[in-house]
Amino acid sequence: MNYVGKVSNAVDTSLKILPSLKVVSGALYSAGFDIESINTEEVIPNPRKVYRWWSLLLHGSHKHNHQMNCSECRTGLQEEKEKKRQKEESLNPVSSNDGTIFVTSGDELHLDQFRALYSVGGMTCASCVNSITAVVNEHFPSVSDFAVDLMNKSAMAIIENKPLASKIQVIIRDAGFNCDLVELLPVSTVKSYTVTASIGGLTCAACVNSINNSIAKLSYVKEFNISLLTNSGTFVIDDEAHTRSLKERIEDMGFDFIINEVKQSVSANVNKQSRKVNLSISGMFCTECPEQINESLRLFGDAIVIDDPVSLSHPYVEFTYVPSPPTVTIRSILKRIGEISPQFNTSIIHPLSLEELSAQMARREQKRLLSRLIVTVLIAVPTFVIGVIAMALLPKSNHFYQLVRVPLFGKMSRMTFSLFWLATPVYFYSASVFHKKAFQEVRSLWNVGVPWTRRFFRFGSMNLLMCLGTSIAYWASFVLMLIESTLKGDITHEKTSGMGMMSEGFTTTYFDSVVFLTMFLLIGRMLESFSKTKAADSVSMLAKLRPNEAHLVEVASEVNKPLDIINEKLLSIDLLEVGDYIKILPGMSPPADCIIVSNATFFDESALTGESRPVPHKFGEQIFAGTINVGKSYVIAKVIALEGSSMLDQIVEIVRQGQLHRAPIERVADKLTGYFVPIVTLIAILTWIIWISLGYGGALPEHYLDIEFGGWAMWSLEFCIAVFVIACPCGIGLAAPTALFVGSGLAAKFGILAQGGGEAFQEGSRVDILCFDKTGTLTEGGEPKVQDELYFKNDEIESTREDIYYHILLELSRDLELNSTHPLGIALRDYCESKFLTQYLLDNKHILTKVEEISGKGLKGDIDAIKLNQHTKLRELNLTAGFTSIILGNERFMNENSAFIDSSHEQIINEWKREGKSIILIAVNSDESPSNYKTVLAFSVTDRIRPEASEVIKTLNEIGIQTWMITGDNKMSAQAVAKVVGIPVENVISDVLPNEKAEKIRWLQKNGHATQAAGDGKSNIVLNKKITTKRSIVAMIGDGINDAPSLTMADVGIAMGNGSDIALSSAKFILLKPDLRLVLILFRLSRKIFNRVKFNFFWALIYNTIGIPIAAGVIYPYNNSRLDPVWASLAMALSSVSVVLSSLALRLYKPTELDYIEEMTEGKA
């Protein structure tokens, strides 16, 4: 057998050995290694070895059939091939069979950084987190990015080289924790620079278009946005050195380019460009088999890179390939291997995910605790009979009472001796989970490099307190028992039954307390483990939304005909590739992100976006893994993203990473729990010293001493044990992470991703001001539409000519905006084309001889009157148009050209303005007076305001959050939208550049409360001096690249899920649905979560503040009342469990906004 053991001072070690597994394990443990897991792999022995008979018996007819069909076996070339293979194996890196590579090729060593993900077992409270963080920071100060997640039992580090991953693993194990390396992936440190600049000389959409076309050719520009309204541009470039080149490029085009700000952002992205597969291959019997498999993979050429070749001793092959259907897919690769020999069986090996490893650790821990709990409960029954019933409940005349009081050795009673034998397995076996962890924690304190302040002032965890409590009770009882066994003399009493005098032994021990202490501690630890596992289900439940199998279909299609299914088969989702067609039946979930190519149906997206109603999807629309087909028909869809890159995977990754971002309140808890154990230890020792001093000093009445043997020293020890046992840092340490963990999962359920983790929730609970971007946030975004049209009729023109005249104006308006890239121009052009172009089409589209952009005002076009009068309809009726110039623009432009609007029409246009619509006016001159224009057409263009916006803003104001608008749009439009949605006009900041948005956020953070006070009058500024000096917590919600600086500057950045990538990366929260009601849910949920965190802290602190003094004996003078160590242990267990259950109660929370959303949805339906 080939034993593969993971040991603490090596990443992966394989030993081909003959001794027993027990001997090997013992040798490794004696050498100082912790063996976490042992995998046994079957190795085909060389037939020339002494155990050839076992090989023949094992393989039987399979090997015989292989030898009969293998020419290599018959020609006797095995030995030569085996030598060659062993030589090749010595030169090749070896990977573990779980899919994680630990030795890499030289090319990978050139990568800047790696992300190491660890699964850490044995963590019970925040003290454990502090210990791991402290030991890693002490030994590896160069690791700047290191985080530990108690709930997920994981840790993550960004490191400079791969060997450092193993060193961190060793250090964590040396600190007394189980640690497995789950994932080690290269990350690319992406540095980008956002350049915000003012661009002078922009006069029309053509100018913007020319810059767009030029900048699009620059490879170093990742994203850019040019705004004609604000004469500005935002550019994301990969190197600051390109700033000068960008400036020169735009200035060479004739524009002024003034840089306002250059801001750097750094992100680390995991590289997953190609697909890596690890195959397990069985059925190989000779050295030619792995050679043929490796050779079959090499035949794919450069499309496949073999990372770890297969061999007889290592029946796994790992390779990386770039899918290229249909020739290079995982199915074609497996098919080629299967064609070599029908005896080869291949299976894809999946490395366990972090959640699966955490679940495994939790199950192992629960199994270990359960076995010990069962033993303890079985022992607790006779302990209760002997130690409680016999001694406390039975009368002295009872025969059983007298029987257990009989001395066995000296004055040691039978009861003491029986309880000793009952407590011993409990102490050494059941309580070993506490002893081992405590010993490892203390031992790690004395490693080289640990500062003395940590050794004496920041040591220990809950395990140490439990260990000290049970150990003091056991060993003190053991010493008393030995002393009792050496004492001479009898204590007798007269039996009431008349059987004469009988001697009695001493019974003053705490052996029964050891049993009951351990039982209650184990019960508490079990309940806590189950509760934390339940609280940690949020990520694992998301990951389980993906099915294991898919219906792969082969389709044939013809132009303008539906797809026909030629072939269909059920296969594992591991065998899918991008571009495959799959069939999604009713009730099934897509195995990957897809685009529907046939049929239509409804999908339940509640698990991903929180949408309570089924969402219809038809041809060309995208569907996601994790949703469910709830319609009545199947759909055929094309796979566009596999596991690892789907929306579901991104959600899981964001939730997982968010849970590593700790809230400030958690850091306070960490500091508190770091000093908790030393303080409790000091209190326990002082308690014992004070009581023993009072006892021997004569300050205590004699009737206080209610034990038979041991004096004041033994009597005082019970208070000391109770203090050790009742103190519980777990409740303090779990108060924040459990609530935040449940809260982040609950937020994801409602369609809110907490990218900023606990810190984001804490800031979200304190928000004073919420700033909205206008376009795409308060409005629905996308392409604006023409909503209204007003034609200024001329009563002097007959109706026939009027109709032709109207349509020609529409076509000329279309031609003016023909090359426009401005949203309003595009909206007008599309409106004209869709409504009238099919009926009236100008014979010659070059009627406009010149189009001029008037900066900030509009367009002017000169008309070729001769060509215009050749219009088909005009020729038919022998008419002329009667004008030579046309202008298009705003009211200022019309007034400058004497194209005034009469009062009746002006009233209609003003009504449009009040509704927040943009106005476009058309005017033409006349042959008689070319310089005078007359307004002939008016259009209103709007980006529709979100229907829920006004209700959301009203509710925000009611719950005490100010609402502001910060936009680059013009003042009138911005204020009009503000009026519609309910934002005070004085809270509108318009005409700002992207960098100016960030400055306005900073200004609001400093002066937000002052502006709030000023809103009610100057007198309030004086009356609210304390309010005005307080810094405001400002949130910003937006979706565009121009919102990224303000999202970063805000205390809480919120990005709409349909926004740009740079906006998403800058935000702390991401709304998966473009629904502003999620903002209300976000703030209410944040407040709910942090109210629960505060409650948990209050409960944990009150428990310790009250419980520890009671255990120390402050109430003993009142009726000799004390807290027995047994009941102290039960109280301790219930304390931490109650905190976890309190956090789990958050799952019962249902925001009131969900009812409103459902009502709105039903209303629309």
From TrEMBL:
- Where does it mainly reside? membrane
Membrane topology, from the record: Multi-pass membrane protein
| GO MF terms held by the record | ATP binding; ATP hydrolysis activity; copper ion binding; P-type divalent copper transporter activity
- What CDD domains has UniProt attached to this entry? HMA, P-type_ATPase_Cu-like
Q: Where are the transmembrane segments?
A: 373-395, 415-434, 464-483, 503-524, 672-692, 712-742, 1097-1119, 1125-1146
Protein's UniProt keywords contain Endoplasmic reticulum:
no
Residue ranges constituting the HMA domain according to the UniProt record: 193-258
Gene3D superfamilies per the record?
3.30.70.100, Calcium-transporting ATPase, cytoplasmic domain N, Calcium-transporting ATPase, cytoplasmic transduction domain A, HAD superfamily/HAD-like
- What is the recorded name of this protein? Heavy metal translocatin
Q: What is the lineage of its organism?
A: Eukaryota, Fungi, Dikarya, Ascomycota, Saccharomycotina
